[in-house]
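ligand=fe (ii) ion
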Amino acid sequence: MRLRSIELALPGAGEAARFLADVWGCADAGQRGARHYLRGSGDLPYLVRLTESRENAVESVTFTCARARLAGLARAVAAHGLKARPVTSDDPGGGEGILVELPEGEVLRFLAGSASVAPIAPHPRASRRVMPVKLTHVVLNAIDAEASARVVEEVLGFAVSDRTRAMVFLRCNRAHHSTAFARAGFASLNHIAFEMDDLDAVMRGIGHMRDHGFAPAWGPGRHGPGANVYAYYIAPFGAVIEYSTAVERVAADHRAGTPEDWNWPDKRIDQWGLSDKDTTALRAAEEKFRFHRNWAPAPLSRSARG
Ligand SMILES: [Fe+2]
């Protein structure tokens, strides 16, 4: 299974799309009505969908998988009585699958048959680009992070990679985490992390953002769990976004770490200790994108259940 994309609704979607394309480094993947699509250099048709709307909302976080896996997911979702409905994607790449709602209204979309696209190769004489490859994780805030993580683990088949005092990290393939639930006290988008080619690309990204007047809200640094490099920003459209790279790959028999395994020395919250974290600004930004609660679940059809 792969994390593919996030779908957001917001006022000023066009302006937000221009920021992601012109400053952050994504490539424009087109517009369909009120929907703007941004892609990376990898083979996914898009990473972020921005839909013009009166209010901010997370519409879904989308994963792709094989049809057999989707059929198993649909059976498990139905057996556990989760709110769900079959969906056919009319986004670039298409695909069909299910929308599943987690305990706090978090909406995950699982698609099979979503088409990939040709990667964007670097220009031979301009290889020092700032362009995300794909999303590497989407972290969600939760009132009860353990409850949401339990559903994702026990029903959707993800595995817990680590627990810290702040988060539960979950993987759906060999990457240490594709999502995590933060123990925030409210349900919302925590942040969207974009995978960069390497450490150099993260640092070029920081420089490129600096050229446009943006300083990181946290970073650069290297996390404990997952050991990925990070630089967090608050985007002009309100969401927290991250340049990231080199997330750890874990073995199938990986033992999930506990909060006791992740104690930092005094005044240190990452491996490098280079930067301060603007906790107040990040927290305020994390409250900006909540979940819609206005979609109607429907019985999963025979075909959706496989
Ligand atoms: Fe992150």
